[in-house]
Amino acid sequence: MFQDFSAPENPVIGDNRLKALREQMRHHAIDALIVPHADEQRNEYLPACAERLAWLSGFTGSAGEAVVTTDQAVVFVDGRYTLQSAQQTDADFWSVESLVEKPAHKWLRQNAKTGARIGFDPWLHTLNEIKNLKAAAKELDGELIPLDGNLVDAIWTDRPARPSEPASIHDFTFAGQPTRKKLEEMQAAMVSENADLCVLTDPSSVCWLFNIRGHDVAHTPITLAHAVLRDDEEPILFLEDKKLDIETKAFLTQVCELREPSELTETLRALSAGSRIMLDPNLAAYAFHSIVEEAGGTVVSAADPARLPRAIKNDAEIKGTREAHLRDGAAVTSFLAWLDQQPSGSVDEITVAKKLEQTRKDMAGNMPLRDISFDTISGSGPNGAIVHYRVDETSNRKLEEGELYLCDSGAQHDDGTTDITRTIAIGEPSDDQRKMFTLVLKGHIGIAVARFPKGTRGVDIDVLARMPLWQHGADYAHGTGHGVGSYLSVHEGPQNISKRGMQELLPGMIISNEPGYYRTGAFGIRIENLVLVREEMDIPGGDQPMLGFETLTLAPIDQRLIDATLMTDDELHWLNAYHGHVQRELEPLVEERVANWLKTATEPMVRDLPSASA
Predict the structure, then answer these.
(1) How confident is the model at residue 609, as a pLDDT?
(2) Which 8-state DSSP code applies to residue 129?
(3) Domain boundaries for CATH 3.90.230.10 within the chain
(4) Burial of 294 (C-beta count, 10 Å sphere; 0-12/13-18/19+)
(5) Helices (H), 28-81
(6) Which of 14, 18, 298, 301 sits most deeply, having the most CB atoms within 10 A of its CB?
(7) CB hemisphere CA count around 246 (13 angstroms)
(8) Do 279 and 299 contact (CB within 8 A), yes or no?
(9) 6 near 84, Cβ under 8 Å?
(10) Which fold has domain 16-155?
(11) How far apart are CA 302 and CA 592, in angstroms?
């Protein structure tokens, strides 16, 4: 299995770790310490050696931070993790705050003492984060202190080793563009910023640029590496030699100079004097800014030049993701057909998640399942209301009659990354469950059918997914859609659909479409397909061409949960057209029994009309 369902062996109960950390803080004359969910390269999913926040507090979510003072300990999380953080942290010693409404820098302004010395690890914070913390310290007449070492590491006696899995070549068939061609685009971006050098700190950007992949982070096929791009010489790739076999090393030495990661700091220091260095203020560690400026260089704050080209998929990547979604759709549909045959109460969340992973593996054909794209969210009943729920042996529960089962899962194949959520009725759903599911579906369709002019951003269309819920006094506390990589991270920027989605949506981008609804202690609903931003198209009778979405994900939506009386004619038309497409595409790929089930599951839906009065 690519995922583990065992419960934590040593849940963080009590304050022994806090006591040890506070002793370190006293030794360094620190009144407050920031502990982010971050590693040196700002990965969303961290290698085990960088899970400092989880080790200290017990909170295992993929976004958050903590502040520890001499007498308080606070975890800051976004709306996805409100329930999870409360369950995972010891309430006798930890409190929970909103990462959005009151992040650490705002909390410190209100709660830290005047003159406080606030410590931080400069390798775990970006320049923009430090600007906010510096402003908070200034208001307190305090001081922000960069630490030479990480204080959590100092007390983490059994900290795992840094990963060193082998890197491999990402075949040109799937990459679609050679490194030298990509480098031309990177160097053009450097010229536009009048920069001599650019430091790539995001491993997804490094792997995309050099057409390599790895296994250093669970479920995300990256190798942890940095790169320094030069305007007049080959780039330098900082990657452990022990990760490279003869073929991969020969492949890389054609396009770059290889050095050990231990040489990164001194190399950058030597290159910085008198040079202009591009650093992404939202991605690059603050330590890089200090190294450049102390060496006499000038920091040029500019976006990672690989981020946008990486997000705009080329023809080979688009072809690959379509094929990956076909296989994935066949596997998910086969799983759904199996699940539909299981009596209520006969299977549990872990059994079902294992079955789905095994089905994906068995149906991968000649394109093996390299990994899942994240730990499967397999939540029945009240567990489905925990947005990023992760089942383990202690939380595992059966799928009972009258409940909803939410399954959010994905796969990693050489030709594409998938991510799909389906919410399934176990037994007969209630009218309320059907109503809320239908409102979520209406929002999903609102995004799927959207047409929008060039220049439209995610923030501009996010309301399309929320409006049906808003009209009934409901909402969801997460974004509507995130970018997805090409055999890379399942969560990719800069594109997204959310209240903060400021990136223009461009043809070739892949984004999720996943509105939801969550009722604490009862159920959760989410419907997720991945969509591709299509080229501009002419609208009959229109004045200008419009962009739109192509839905990539192929799997039936549970029609037992749909109240057709709440749907418009156009919405029903979309649903029936989508299901017709799913049935035609997947029928040749699945067993006969699954094909028969699929035919029933995708039958055209019509609105029931009231009986005529006598």
Answers:
(1) 57
(2) H
(3) 312-600
(4) exposed
(5) 52-57
(6) 18
(7) 0
(8) yes
(9) no
(10) Creatine Amidinohydrolase; Chain A, domain 1 (3.40.350)
(11) 54
Question: What are the tokens at 558?
Answer: 């549970």
User: Among the residues of 296-430, which ranges form H helices?
Assistant: 307-311, 315-340, 349-362
Summarised one tens digit per residue, pLDDT across range 67-97 is: 999 999 999 998 778 888 888 898 899 999 9
Q: Which CATH number fits domain 312-600: 1.10.1040.10, 3.90.230.10, 3.40.50.720, 3.30.360.10?
A: 3.90.230.10
**Could you tell me which residues come within 8 angstroms of residue 439 by beta carbon, excluding any fewer than 6 positions away?**
468, 469, 472, 474, 517, 566
> Token digits for 155?
């007390």
- 3-state helix, strand, coil split of the chain in percent (to 5) is 40, 20, 40
Residue 169 token pair: 């070549």
Residue ranges in the chain modelled with pLDDT below 70: 9-10, 609-614
In sequence order, which ranges of 92-171 are alpha helices (DSSP H)?
104-111, 127-139, 151-155
User: How many residues does this entry show for the chain?
Assistant: 614
CATH architecture type of domain 168-307: 3-Layer(aba) Sandwich (3.40)
Asked whether the beta carbons of 553 and 418 are under 8 A apart, the reply is yes
Give phi and psi for 174, each to the nearest 5.
-95, -35
Which two three-digit tokens encode residue 248?
Answer: 């991969």
Distance CA 382, CA 523 (A): 5
